[in-house]
From TrEMBL:
Domain DUF6318: 55-186
Biased composition (Low complexity): 21-41
Organism: Cellulomonas phragmiteti
UniProt superkingdom: Bacteria
Region described as Disordered: 21-51
Keyword rRNA-binding: no
Keywords tagged on the record: Signal
Pfam short name (any one): DUF6318
Keyword Signal: yes
Name used for this protein in its record: DUF6318 domain-containing protein
Length: 196
């Protein structure tokens, strides 16, 4: 079954403000980093469940481990928080996982808080079709990549009127991550994938 999470795009779309190429974490690195890659297979699709984006997502158990699998799980969890912050304005966990170097993370938190303050909400379910973690320095530096399919994004005002704010599409997310007893997102890069 394809992994499904609920995510909402920034009101200007995923490819706008704060989207950078993930240059990797800053700090000491080794000349020859050890790389371990874990890929989650993509089986046949099944019917999509309905998500309540006002309920915080559950942390996957794999996040407790500093490993390639843990990095992939943490990146997927972080993306699942995206819809939640836009639906509720509760950015506490999102901000806790965001490094000060992550422009995308901080811009999304501020935008979600401003959206809720204006009386609007969002919450568009998306599909994560693949998740891969890479261990750069064991127990310290990691990367993760997600491929995400997003339908058009709808923002709803206090009267229940919806406005489409992006056309949606398929995107590759690249995460640079640090393990310090828990996961910290150092940067996020987003690249749109052209329709075939």
């Amino acid at each position: 079954m394809r992994a499904q999470v609920a995510v909402v795009a920034l009101s200007a779309g995923l490819v706008v403000s704060g989207c950078t190429t993930a240059d990797g974490p800053t700090g000491p690195t080794t000349a020859e980093p050890t790389a371990t890659v874990t890929t989650t297979p993509t089986p046949s699709p099944t019917p999509s469940p309905t998500f309540d984006v006002t309920v915080p997502p559950e942390r996957p158990e794999a996040m407790a481990t500093p490993s390639a699998d843990g990095a992939a799980a943490a990146a997927t969890y972080f993306i699942s928080l995206y819809a939640y912050i836009y639906a509720t304005g509760d950015t506490s966990t999102w901000r806790q996982m965001s490094a000060e170097t992550c422009t995308f993370c901080l811009d999304a938190a501020g935008d979600a808080e401003a959206t809720i303050a204006s009386g609007k909400t969002g919450g568009t379910p998306v599909e994560v079709t693949s998740a891969e973690g890479i261990e750069l320095t064991p127990g310290e530096w990691y990367k993760a990549g997600l491929r995400v399919i997003q339908p058009p994004t709808i923002e709803v005002d206090a009267s229940g009127n919806g406005t489409q704010t992006s056309d949606g599409g398929t995107y590759d997310f690249d995460f640079a991550m640090t393990w310090n007893g828990d996961w910290v997102i150092d940067s996020v890069g987003i690249e749109p994938i052209a329709a075939e």
